[in-house]
């Protein structure tokens, strides 16, 4: 086991995947010589050469479309979209080609492409650099979507994504890039938890708190603070948001009867809406209170100085927890 | 044989076309794909190629007519020729087009292929006939075993998962309003879902209410000459019976007995009754016994606990909700006194008195009858000495007080007439072992024998 | 290098400013750049090209008829473009990889598509027919220009493999306005990818003439990206063959991408749903009819007494056989079972989808017959075979 930052564990994941399989390529803007704007691809060019570590022209559609062509040819491209807010030019190639080619060709052509997206906010960035576009991809059949919350998962799930024959959109929360954690670099992928499995980050009995990505650490903080109120929160890190591991989620909800969902992305038609709908369909008879979502507001991501009012923090989460516990001071979910 | 050709949808949802002109006449012989007509749609003038080789037998429209898509346009006499065998296909296409029953197909009408909105079916919209819904088969686990990345839940977890009682939000709300603990309500349906009816049934049972009073139809029927009388099982009696059964067949009952000289208690009671400061408070044996039980329970918590099978836990209460069995016209009810351990002897006596009064009037609230932690039943009022009482469901112990009898007893080394009472303690042997039960009983008895000993206890 | 760049050529409407080896009247003329590439084309080979174009035209005609008879939902005719498609496609090796658009009937034919490949997708039975790896040709692409990036990526992969195949992308004049096509040329040039860009300038993108897309010959864009370019008569099968031989040779030798603009004409509508009389001059159509790609080859061969009656008969018979095969494949197609809509979404099983599939399967089993409900949505699927 080693202590690594998330950025470093992604770096190690790429390194190992490329060492294991000569068909794995890494491509994106500034990922070669510079090693990536977050240094996530640092050192890969030196180790694997310019043929496999490709600095691309500044064109996201071009990056994604050529990745499709490389996949046609039998390679396993790992594409980096430099920032979440820049994925949109590539959206057509992702949705119309990457996601559909397997279906279109009845399985004859596979798209084993991993799309790495530095993701989400809380880093005081300029406009377009703090987006949470995951719902668009969760809604696109043919893709798998994961969001990592800690260095160990970042490492393992990246390697699993690369090994998958399906296209995987891999969200890495940039505000956790420098967070350190224990990582077992030698874990056997066959023994590691499957990419689609949710993780119970903290056991509890009173409320189930569903979340993913950077928001997991906020949720854990909320659970600790909740102890002061005598409330025991079970935090579930979904890890995979398409598909979602409803088995783990439902078992928790059947135990607690109360659900709060939290994510940075905006509320309307976000992943939380899907989670709440599914949990309600599956666990209606166990619910003591309506599930509540704690999310970004339905606004474009605000300027850096104001982002803390947009990101769902510990207090907003606990206000929602109060609501599902039917405590009087909560305003969350109250219709105006 | 005659083949009809219906006007197809010529381009993405067009509902009709105008026949511009025929390029053939009835009786003409035509070849496959020969242009037979021009039609004009909303989008374009289109030539129609013949779908058959054969003779034109009938034209079903004239120039200038507007024809609906799907209606017959022209009929052909087609020689009864079997269609050519389908073209041999490379293995690459084997999956995509297996030749169907080609003979039948070629004789079929040229049909719409479903682009755009085809004409509405004639007649009223109707559902397809169903045989009934069957639950989905589980996901084919062999299929999932091939997946390295998804979760494969092929087995039930080894230990039962803890789950809350299942009910729907409106029913939960009802239960809350009625003061009913869903954990105690039995679900009537196979799925284990507690319904509104289940909650109402439960509430009705534990409530001694007028609804249970029989209108004539519910009274015992006795026809002249009958050898039996039939009394419907309902109301309090039903509830009591159900509770007895539940208790008797869930908890292993053990009863232990102790006969004790309670003369000192009788004297205490007499003295308290004579005290003018305590006028209006009826303090009897039950109250003293209740106090003794509360004190003893604090020192013997196993008698004040609950077996929670659902959560696989023994719940030890740090309070005593003391159930007092009360006989009423309608049967036995066991309302409990909340936090009896915090009450003084006088408070207990008052609570017992009020409780009995309410019970006799049939006004005990359902909420009062749940949540008890230990019960006392006074069988002595009926003149008997001892019994093997059945535990109130969810409780670990129940103490029956026998009649106080004046009888010869050993007293200071000689035989004397003393007030003697037998105590019968039934307990749940899962929660209480023999020694604990005996010690508890002794402690209660000791206080009744020498009330002053209570001063030794907190 | 030029410090000021001012476009001087007439916009792309000059359809005779092209490299050519065969005039519309069937006269063989010399072109210094192209001639060497078709040294080997004798009368026999020329007849072979003629035959291919005739069969392609016949498939196209049959497709139109089948749509008019209600057996196909849609057809995108390629009439008039046979020389571009057959001529260029004949230049590829079997192990080259081609990324066509939805109109490249002639390309698919030359690559080895069979009768059912031409009709089953337009009939709505499947999104694709052949396995791309069987004929090294990608599924015809409906998103305009998307395939061009795929070809570039594929070519980048060829370089990584260190082999000498080439990739090629077919796209129209309209597609050249799409970002994807321009990005593809940036990537191709940056990475010196062994890819050929074949722009079929058939003068029309549905109702928009090429002048909406280009104010300078399309072939003139490629040099701006650093890519050598050739503008040929797209109705001249010899010139098309020569051009693609030049381009593939250029790429195969490691010299990077090449661009060909084949100037031709879309004789028919954009698709069977289109009415070109609303936006096109019939005189223009007539002018292009006189430049027909098949007629000029026939004229050349007849002039050399190399077009016998026997040959004419044989080709006609073969065309009829192809027509019949395509018709038969269409009419005998099997529509898949309802549950098959769930097949092939993923390579590895996806729990969310599997549970939806199981539910839908159980739902379907609950009905006593296969007939769908009546009502306004009865149209979807209907009772077709």
Key terms:
heterotrimer; A: 336 residues; alpha/beta; Rossmann fold; seven-stranded mixed beta sheet; five-stranded mixed beta sheet; 12 helices; 14 strands; 20% strand; C: 385 residues; 2 domains; five-stranded parallel beta sheet; two-stranded antiparallel sheet; 14 helices; 7 strands; 8% strand; globular; disordered C terminus
Sheet with most strands: strand arrangement of chain A: 3-2-4-5-7-6-12
Which term fits the overall shape of chain C?
globular
Multimeric state: heterotrimer
- Chain-averaged pLDDT of chain A: 95
The CATH topology of the largest domain in chain C corresponds to Rossmann fold
The percent range for helix content of chain C is 40-55%
The overall number of domains of chain C is: 2
Instruction: Write out the strand line-up for the largest beta sheet of chain C, numbering strands in chain order.
Output: 1-2-3-7-6
Helix content of chain A: 25-40%
Strand content of chain A: 15-25%
Textual characterization of the structure:
The complex is a heterotrimer of chains A (336), B (458) and C (385). By secondary structure, chain A is an alpha/beta fold. Chain A has two domains: 2-183, Thiamin diphosphate (ThDP)-binding fold, Pyr/PP domains (Rossmann fold, 3-Layer(aba) Sandwich), CATH 3.40.50; 199-324, Rossmann fold. Chain A contains twelve helices and 14 strands. Chain A has a seven-stranded mixed sheet with strand order 3-2-4-5-7-6-12, sandwiched between helices. In chain A, strands 9-11-10-13-14 form a five-stranded mixed sheet, sandwiched between helices. In chain A, helix 1 (6-20) runs parallel beside helix 7 (151-163) and helix 8 (215-226) packs across helix 12 (314-324). Chain A is globular, with a radius of gyration of 20 Å. Chain B has three domains: 1-115, RNA polymerase II/Efflux pump adaptor protein, barrel-sandwich hybrid domain (OB fold (Dihydrolipoamide Acetyltransferase, E2P), Beta Barrel), CATH 2.40.50.100; 163-215, Dihydrolipoamide Transferase, CATH 4.10.320.10; 237-456, Chloramphenicol Acetyltransferase, CATH 3.30.559.10. Chain B is built from nine helices and 19 strands. The longest helix of chain B has 16 residues, at 345-360. The N and C termini of chain B lie far apart (109 Å). Chain C has helices spanning 43-68, 82-89, 105-111, 115-123, 132-135, 146-161, 179-190, 210-213, 221-224, 237-255, 282-289, 293-303, 309-331, 351-365; strands at residues 97-99, 167-172, 195-201, 204-205, 208-209, 229-233, 258-263. In chain C, the strands form two sheets. A five-stranded parallel sheet of chain C has the order 1-2-3-7-6, sandwiched between helices. A two-stranded antiparallel sheet of chain C has the order 4-5. Chain C starts with 42 loop residues before the first helix and ends in a 20-residue tail after the last helix. Chains B and C meet through strand 5 and helix 1 of B and helix 1, helix 4, helix 13 and helix 14 of C.
